[in-house]
Amino acid sequence: MSEAHFVSQHLQSDHNLDSFDSGQPVLDEWLRRSALHAESIRSGRTWVWTAAGAVVAYFTLVGHVIERDVLP
After folding, report:
1. Are 11 and 47 in contact (CB under 8 A)?
2. How far apart are CA 19 and CA 6, in angstroms?
3. Per-residue DSSP letters for the chain?
4. What backbone phi and psi angles, to 5 degrees, belong to 56?
5. What are the pLDDT tens digits along the chain (72 aa)?
6. Which pTM value belongs to this model?
């Protein structure tokens, strides 16, 4: 039995996201329409996992602002 080999890569414009389907349409659409923009304005960093050249998973780290005035 052959094992799948996944490659973790920083999201780039040449990744083909058209067939990616996480089962969560809102998240899929965010990846396709907004992830690269978030990269360009440095508000998020996205990594994708690929197998045989296809994106099979992703995650994004996004900074969050906590205002000192709202802390207890």
Report:
1. yes
2. 17
3. -PPP--EEEE--TTS--TT---S-HHHHHHHHHTHHHHHHTTSEEEEEEEETTEEEEEEEEE-----GGG--
4. -115, -15
5. 456 789 899 999 999 998 899 999 999 999 999 999 999 988 899 999 998 888 999 999 987 776 777 767
6. 0.76
